[in-house]
Each structure stands twice: as C-alpha cells, then as structure tokens.
Amino acid sequence: MKITTNSAEETMEFAKQLAKKFTPCTICLSGDLGAGKTTFTKGFALGLKIKENVTSPTFTIMNEYMGKDCKLRHFDMYRLSSADEAYELGFFEYFADKTNFNLVEWAENVPGLIPKPFVKISLKKVDEAKREICVEEIK
Ligand SMILES: Nc1ncnc2c1ncn2[C@@H]1O[C@H](COP(=O)(O)OP(=O)(O)OP(=O)(O)O)[C@@H](O)[C@H]1O
Ligand SMILES: [Mg+2]
What is the number of domains present in the chain? Predict the structure, then answer.
C-alpha cells in the first residue's frame, strides 16, 4: 500500500487509523532524518488511545506507553551501531513478544535483530510538507 500525505497532521491521522486496524506486531519505520518516523509514531499512539505525549527516545533508546489494550514500545536505534549492542541492552526479548506493539526507528542500524515477519513502513520526503508512505509486510 502506498499513500501520499501533505502535512504532519495527515501522517498522524493515517498512522492513527492503521493503529486501530492492526493487531500487535513490530513495525520498522524507515526513512531519512526528518522523514516523519516519530510523527507517524505519535499518530499511531493516538490510535491506541495513549494520552501521553510521545517524544523521540533518542537518548533513552526505548520509551514504553500503555495503550487501551496493549503496550506501545517506541525504539530509536539511531545511536546504536550493531545488533550486539541491542542484545546487550536486553532488547532481544521485546521482539519475541507478540502481544504488544514495537515501533522501531533506524532498524537499519541493528541488522538481524528484528525477526520476521514484521511490517515495514517507509517514509520518503518529497518536499517540505509532502511524504510518500509505503506499507509492506516483510515475511
Ligand atoms: N507530511 C508530513 N508527514 C510527517 N511529517 C511532516 C510532514 N510534513 C512536514 N512534516 C514535519 O517533518 C518533521 C518530521 O520529523 P520527525 O521527528 O517525525 O522525523 P523522524 O523521521 O523521526 O526523524 P529522525 O530520524 O531525526 O528521528 C516534523 O517537523 C513534521 O512536522
Ligand atoms: Mg525520530
């Protein structure tokens, strides 16, 4: 599935609707700096009825929120440089857990950490306000 959004609000709304449809899974968010991965996560959290303000876990690597029926874990692997580092932080078990959502920014930095199947959502900056968003299942 591929769509184009014209504002951060539209990306959040798209993510919110996906969150309402999806069952717990791991989602890898791919895209350059400023593409909208954290913005997408904010919208997804709204769809799970999370009231807290979702902020980028750049320094904590992972933030956890309690949703209506399950948790949302938001990872930012930007500061990691291998899957080993993520293993050392004890992240392995999170991805074996199929009862909560894991949303992962910069999964490219920890190759092999995230088991298939997972959902890959790619965000591409077309211009200042326009983003191409592609949703695919990686089996
Ligand atoms: N259509 C759009 N969708 C998403 N964000 C948009 C859109 N148009 C403009 N923006 C803006 O682009 C920025 C996206 O920033 P965001 O932090 O979500 O990116 P990111 O992919 O998480 O970056 P990083 O890799 O640094 O974590 C925000 O300032 C947002 O308001
Ligand atoms: Mg981000």
Answer: 1
Report pLDDT digits (tens) over 64-84: 999 999 999 999 999 999 999
Task: Indicate if the pLDDT at residue 109 is higher than 90.
Answer: yes
**Residue 54: pLDDT band with limits 50, 70, 90:** very high
Q: Residue 7 is part of which domain span? A: 2-138
Q: Is the pLDDT of residue 23 over 90?
A: yes
User: Which amino acid is located at 125 in the chain?
Assistant: K
Protein residue whose Cα sits closest to atom 18 of ligand 1: 36
CATH of the domain at 73: 3.40.50.300
Pocket test for ligand 1, best of 32, 39, 62 (most atoms within 8 A of CB): 39
- Kindly report the three-state secondary structure assignment for every residue of 92-138: HHHHHCCCCEEEEECHHHCCCCCCCCEEEEEEEECCCCCEEEEEEEE
Pocket lined around ligand 1, Cβ cut-off 6 Å: 5-8, 10-11, 31, 33-39, 56, 105, 129, 131
